Fold this protein.
Amino acid sequence: MESGPRIDQATLQWLLGQVQSGASPEDVVASMEARGWQEDDAIAALEEAMREHLAGHAREHGLPPPEKVPCPVEMNGPSVIDAGDRKVVVLANMLHPRVVAFGGVLSDEECDAMVEMGRRKLKPSAVFNPDTGADEKHEARSSEGTFFRRGENGLCARIERRLAKLVDWPLENGEGLQLLRYGPGAEYKPHYDYFDPDRPGAHVALSRGGQRVASIVMYLNTPLSGGATTFPDARFEVAAVKGNAVFFAYDRPHPMTGSLHGGAPVVEGEKWVATKWLRVGRHL
Ligand code: PD2
Ligand code: ZN
């Protein structure tokens, strides 16, 4: 991740004073330009000042510092996003927790092909055990699943390129796709997707690209009933509709992100999803 320009303490304090006195970011940049700053440098300096400020605030309160997270769309931004080889629509956009529901991320044919590829290699789903660093079977997950390496085949590679463009996050920071099948009654109880850094096994997961900062769950079919992705803190859920997806981001490994989420029980029929997790750094 880029580190931005180093700014001196006096500039930092001046910038924070401006923000704290209620000046909008546009106003601050305009007054910096009036003092001879180039626009790009002014924006980078303001961003750095805000990062410093938030990291200091986090330290004071014993919280992990916030990381930069993907931002696929601003509030009241475009309703359609160009994801390279496909136009994707924005169905819902929430700031806290940070959740975006997308329509038409995958075509019907792509969904069907993913299901067929996954069907051949399904196993009972495992959960990362933060104490041992191993993936293990867990009662919270009654689905079956499998993984594809990044770029494992042409379809995975195409979807990965599209997702990277859609959420504007480097392809190399993405884990391979995970495919899950839930039968009737199967669910994924509410959980966080980040790794708890205080647990003994976390370093195993963190050694490959650092923290997870966002997840994208793509629906590969439409269950007859149930199977929504739920966000209990927001009392919000995203219905599982074939080809659609839900993106959610968490800027630090802490419940304050409100990113607790689950896969509600499938009431009737089955549910297939593909999940993409995005790391702060390159996942090698
Ligand atoms: O299948 C889902 O809706 C779901 C819900 C929560 C998937 C995941 N988490 C996941 O794969 O992390
Ligand atoms: Zn999850």
About this structure: The pocket of pyridine-2,4-dicarboxylic acid (ligand 1) is lined by residues 178, 180, 188, 193, 215, 217, 229, 261-263, 273, 275 (CB under 6 Å).
